[in-house]
Write a structure and sequence with these properties.
279 residues, alpha+beta, Aminopeptidase, 2 domains, twelve-stranded mixed sheet
Length: 279
């Protein structure tokens, strides 16, 4: 699939995701911060997030690298040093195709011993055109999560992702928080799938998309995406973004997450690379 990159769109995509993940970490309850050693920092235009209790890329990475303004070598070294001091060893430097300075940034990263890891992440985008009728009908019911259901939201997301139960307080903390909307899909009275939306400066980041194994293939994520986009448009959102793992070239059609967003009007605009040390 060919990249179609508009720099202003790319910048907005990276910024809203950066702010969403920073806010998620900032919202972490004090006991979770203590037990999981979760931390975050603004490093110029970049943000570093770290969680030693969940040593995977999503929770240990630099976001916004070279977005909005060029990064120099000193700033890159500062970011790497912060990650070395705070993050799991598998942390990633994430670099979009429009990161600045375009001609040198990847070269600097490679010189410091980092290597490209895997296919990267497909960054998805849609504008505020109204949603059409749902492509995959479902009998599941999507509901906005209330404050008293926060732990229920966290448990569904944790179980569906296969993450340790210790992360439930962190995932639960976004419920009722300013700029966040959390949703659950229900089979009767049973919550079976989750999704969240972070709104910032008329942009929305969609994430925490997870469905319990026994309920996959029943249209939960299509319904959750549709609900979030519809409510985002009503709230004045002009652009939506989300991401999935980038499938191998030519195999996008076999990736369920990719297809769920494609059916809902999203387009892959670029693949963002993950650079890791010592792989």
């Amino acid at each position: 699939m060919k990249n179609m990159i508009d720099k202003s769109v790319s910048t907005s995509i990276e910024i809203v995701e950066r702010e969403a993940w920073l806010d998620l970490v900032v919202a972490a309850p004090a006991d979770y911060v203590e037990s999981s050693k979760v931390s975050s920092a603004r490093l110029g235009a970049m943000v570093g997030i770290a969680d030693l209790g969940v040593p995977i890329t999503e929770f240990n990475r630099i976001l916004g690298l070279g977005i909005g303004k060029p990064v120099n070598e000193a700033e890159l070294d500062q970011a790497i040093a912060w990650m070395n001091d705070n993050a799991a060893a598998s942390f990633a430097l994430q670099v979009s195709p429009t990161a600045l300075p375009e001609a040198r940034l990847v070269e600097w990263i490679l010189e410091r011993g980092f290597k490209n890891a895997g296919n990267g992440w497909a960054k998805l985008y849609r504008d505020s055109v109204p949603v059409v009728d749902q492509a995959v009908p479902t009998t599941l019911d999507v509901r906005l999560v209330e404050a008293h259901q926060a732990e229920e939201f966290g448990r569904v997301a944790q179980a569906a992702f296969g993450l340790p139960e210790t992360i439930i307080p962190l995932l639960s903390a976004i419920v009722g928080r300013p700029n966040w909307k959390a949703y659950l899909a229900y089979d009767g009275d049973t919550p079976v799938a989750s999704g969240a939306m972070f709104l910032d400066n008329k942009w929305a980041w969609l994430g925490v998309d997870a469905t319990l194994p026994d309920y996959r293939g029943r249209g939960a994520q299509n319904a959750l995406i549709r609900q979030r986009v519809s409510e985002g448009i009503s709230a004045g959102v002009v652009g939506f973004t989300a991401e999935t793992g980038q499938p191998p070239e030519g195999q996008e059609g076999s990736n369920k997450s990719f297809n769920n967003y494609h059916r809902s009007g999203f387009t892959r605009v670029y693949a963002r690379r993950n650079y890791k040390f010592g792989i």
